Amino acid sequence: MKARVLDGVDVLRVVDVLRSQGYQVVAPFAEEGGDGAFSTVTDENRDAIALHLPNPLYPPKRFALPPIEPLLEIRGHGAETTFRPIVEAPRVAVFGIRSCDVAGIGHLDRFYLEGAYRDLYYATRREALFLVNVVCTLPGVDVGEACFCPCTDTGPAAREGFDLQLMDLGGGEWLALAGSQKGEALFQEPFFRRGTPEHLARRRALLDDLRTRFKTFTSWFAAAISRISRGEVSEGTWEEIGRRCLECGGCTYVCPACTCFTVSDRPAGPDRTERVRIWDSCALSGFTRMAGGHNPRKAVHDRRNRRFYRKLSHHFIQRERSVACVGCGRCAEICHGDVGMPTVVELLRRGPTGPSPAANGGKA
Amino acid sequence: MTTAVRENVYLPKRAVIDRVNDEIAGVKTFEWHFEDPAEQAAFGRFKPGQFAQVSVFGAGEFPLSLPASPTEGRMLFTVRQVGTCSAALHQLGAGDRFAVRGPYGNGFPMEEYRGKNLVFAAGGIGLIPLRACIVWALAHRQDFGRILVFHGARTPKDLMYLPLLDGWQHSGQLECYLTVDRATAGWNGNVGVVGSLLTKPEVKLPVENSVAFVCGPPVMFRFAIRDLLSLGFQGKDIVSTLERYMKCGVGKCGHCCIGMAYVCTDGPVFTYEQIAQLGESI
Predict the structure, then answer these.
(1) Do A143 and A242 share a domain, yes or no?
(2) Structural domains in chain A (count)
(3) Residues of A numbered 236-275 whose beta carbons fall under 8 angstroms of chain B's beta carbons: which are they?
(4) Whose CA, among A14, A293, B47, B73, lies 20 to 30 Å from A205?
(5) Do B281 and A71 touch (CB under 8 A)?
(6) Smallest Cα–Cα separation from A19: which of A91, A125, A88, A98?
(7) pLDDT digits (tens, 9 = 90+) for A173-185
(8) Judgement on whether residues A196 and A263 belong to the same structural domain of the protein
(9) A289 interfacial to chain B (CB closer than 8 Å)
(10) Which among A265, A287, A364 is the nearest to B281, CB-wise?
(11) A263/B61 CB distance under 8 A
């Protein structure tokens, strides 16, 4: 992996170069009220791009998997009906994506592109996507109260999955790492210069220090994974988690690693219908309800069990080669009932073992 | 099997309805074909127990089991009107266009069952997916031992595929036993659940070297399984096809997942032994 050094005042010139190459660049901005959000960079707002701010609650996952994505355009009626796929590949560069969210897109890559069926819509959008990872370096600013990426081995500095990685070394200097050929091509720009071993040593020292500054440390993933995979979590523990869940679905909508969607045909003008896919949530009661009303997963705690089984069971970890949690802490921040990932991992670890739903498998 | 790099698995193929038959109240059978003969030929190699994603444009897309056997050389859907998509399909008649993609899922491993007795227990429209297996088995009649069909419904008017069952029964190719929950005038047959047929003295149900196919509503499924297990069937010799809310059919949308299995790609056919180990109640 090639490294270069650049001055802090030149960091946003990376945005300028990408825009001049035809990319729609999205970057984080501090919005009113202190919340951050990814928005499209324009000539007007370019200088307001925030390099250090709390990770926006709404993850940049949407540039790889939009919350609503057209699949087909349908025209006409009856025998005259015609339809064609709408496969879009906008050239989008996400500037300032954090390491946790890079890992989230890596998880999506393995989920949508591998297995028996490859998702053409995801593949097409993903191929056109350029990721500029900015490493979190400021405790209390970049690293939030709920962050726990060292526990999921996804941060604070991503090791792969980005095209370019930028890290604030302090003292007005930034370190750049190329993660792809497209990223390395940027090193031709005159504002990049060769670094020294001292720069890499500063990077290591910063990260070593940063790893001790996290407020949330849920080091018990292993115990939770073991218990959930063996079916040792008691029904009572799930019921406790279910009682705290308000069924808002917020945890799934802010999760960088959630993949579920529903599909719907909706009117899109006179004589035109669009088939769209829309993010869906296993927290919602309609998620498994079939036509006719039968719902195999009606109870709230069964639905919570589903979320954490899907994310933590050994079976799925092996399949996607990653835990479907990237340690971003967004679910912990958004959950009114405090049953985000860190709390649940703790409840699973400490809860009594007992007869689990798995032991009742099949006895509907 | 992995899909080709540029293949769009969500793109349905145009199909035409040839004929519509009323089966029972609220249930219709559609005979159909793909507009493109190449699609027809490719799809025609499906296995009993597989399913398709069916588009009725404007209403949406939904999964349907394939009641025809590939040995019949024709395509069928039998559908009860229960939701938006099935209601829209029920509006269509001969000559109307819709679209289909698939076939999806694992299907029943019929080849593995050669030499065995086949026991079919179907509650109500649970006979729809099993119809494919029965027709397939009759097309390979010499490969199997006894073939027994146990079919139950709420009332005599709700029994599925009656002319077909009668025909098979009279030709002596299989043994068919019917039952209803509630008799109406003119019904001389059995009254009771499907399981009550299994122990009738005239049935002499073969347990050794047999495979039992169970399909029906959740209550019927639970009790039929219990009855088969108590008669000595092993979990690995009871197979079923599971039904779930499903949006993609290709293991991506996440709706049909039960425990560790995606019903669309790992199923929909599971043995009872597998069902008991999925990690979640069905």
Answers:
(1) no
(2) 2
(3) 259-265, 267, 273, 275
(4) A14
(5) no
(6) A91
(7) 999 999 999 999 9
(8) no
(9) yes
(10) A364
(11) yes
* Cβ(B52)–Cβ(B248) below 8 Å: no
Strands (E), chain A: 3-7, 24-30, 36-40, 68-75, 82-85, 92-97, 129-134, 164-170, 173-178, 261-267, 272-279
Nearest chain B residue to A263 by CA: give it.
B247
Q: Which residues of A touch B10 (CB under 8 A)?
A: 71-72, 85, 120-121
What SS3 class is residue A268? coil
pLDDT in tens, B159-208: 999 999 999 889 899 999 999 999 999 999 999 999 999 999 999 999 99
Fold observed for domain B110-232: Rossmann fold (3.40.50)
Strand duo A3-7 + A164-170: pairing: unpaired
Contact A30, A46 (CB under 8 A): no
Q: How far apart are CA A82 and CA A104, in angstroms?
A: 37
Range of the domain at A330: 221-360
Pairwise CA distance, residues B250 & A288, whole Å: 17
**ipTM, 2 decimals?**
0.92
Residues of B in contact with A263 (CB under 8 A): 60-61, 247-248, 253
Q: Say if residue A120 is in the same domain as residue A200.
A: yes
Residue B61's closest CA among B11, B95, B4, B132? B11
| Statement: the pTM of the whole predicted model exceeds 0.90 | yes
Q: Which residues of chain A lie closer than 8 angstroms to B9, CB-CB?
A: 117-120
What confidence tier does A360 reach under pLDDT thresholds 50, 70, 90?
Answer: very low
Q: Does A363 touch chain B (CB under 8 A)?
A: yes
Structure tokens at A49: 């791009």
What is the distance between the alpha carbons of residues B24 and B32, in angstroms, rounded to a whole number?
A: 19
Under an 8 A CB cutoff, do A120 and B265 touch?
no
Residues A282 and A232 in one domain: yes
Q: Give B217's DSSP letter.
A: -
CA of A292: which chain B residue's CA is closest?
B82
Give residue-wise pLDDT tens across range A121-138.
999 999 999 999 999 999
In one-letter notation, the amino acid at residue B1 is: M
Give the 3-state secondary structure percentages of chain A, helix then strand then coil, rounded to 5.
Answer: 40, 20, 40
* Chain B CB within 8 Å of residue A75 CB: no
Contact B5 A121 (CB under 8 A): no
Report yes or no: A310 at the B interface, CB cutoff 8 Å: yes
Q: Given pLDDT bands bounded at 50, 70 and 90, which one contains residue A355? A: low
